[in-house]
Specification:
The protein has 217 residues and is an alpha/beta fold. 29% of the residues lie in helices and 23% in strands. It contains eight helices and seven strands; from the N terminus they run H-H-H-E-H-E-H-E-E-H-E-H-H-E-E. The chain has a seven-stranded mixed β-sheet, sandwiched between helices. The longest helix has 14 residues. It is globular. The model has no long low-confidence stretch (mean pLDDT 89).
Length: 217
């Protein structure tokens, strides 16, 4: 019922018209926090991974190039078509799936990565999201997350009640406390921090994003 009350962003047009969004312009550059996790000696490198809301596959392709078996899902068929072309360009194999994350048949994984899926969900879908993670992420596995940061004028800064009364939504901003509160019952928090400035004028300079790393209990 609540799904019918919400109008969320649609993405086929974006991946077709290609506006000047960073993840469109730099569609082959992986996130700095993902690179940090995969290349860190502090965490075991996963053998398999799932990416939720993969877009054109820049992060999934990076993981595949690091010899990780990757399944990557996005609701946009246009994005998945583009992702498959980019994977072929780089000579890697990724299991790209065009589907709703809540309807797709998915396996279990050592690592789940989400760059932009959670912050496009309506509040009532966050519990469904947590239930999905329970099913697909193994015990002791890691969840990497990147989402809009509250106070950076990048997204809707609304509480849950305001969300359902404010019309169209391009994305919801989160505070650090809100993220910790959402995940702390089921996960140990490794960190929640701002996206680091990596390469100027690229997607690796998105200070309007928060990035997180959680470990499933």
């Amino acid at each position: 019922m609540l799904d019918s009350k919400v109008k969320l962003a649609e993405f086929d047009w974006m991946y077709s018209d290609r506006p000047q969004a960073p993840f469109i312009v730099q569609n082959e550059l992986p996130d700095e926090n993902l690179i940090e996790f995969i290349e860190s000696i502090d965490y075991p490198k996963p053998q398999d991974a799932l990416e939720l809301g993969c877009g054109e596959g820049r992060n999934a392709i990076y993981m595949a190039r690091k010899s990780i078996n990757v399944t990557a899902i996005d609701i946009s068929q246009v994005a998945i078509n583009n992702a498959k072309r980019l994977a072929n360009k780089h000579g890697v194999n990724v299991n790209f799936v065009a589907d709703d994350i809540f309807k797709a048949k998915l396996g279990s994984y050592q690592f789940v990565y989400d760059c932009g899926c959670l912050h496009h969900l309506a509040p009532h879908r966050r519990l469904t999201y947590l239930d999905l993670l329970d099913k697909v992420l193994i015990s002791g596995g890691y969840l990497g997350l990147s989402c809009f940061a509250w106070g950076k004028n990048c997204a809707d800064e609304v509480d849950d009640w305001e969300f359902y009364n404010s019309g169209f939504h391009a994305g919801v901003a989160f505070t650090e406390g809100r993220l910790r509160g959402l995940f702390n019952k089921r996960y140990d928090t490794i960190y929640v921090r701002e996206y680091k400035n990596g390469i100027r004028d690229t997607i690796q300079g998105l200070e309007f994003m928060l990035v997180c790393l959680f470990k499933k209990k």
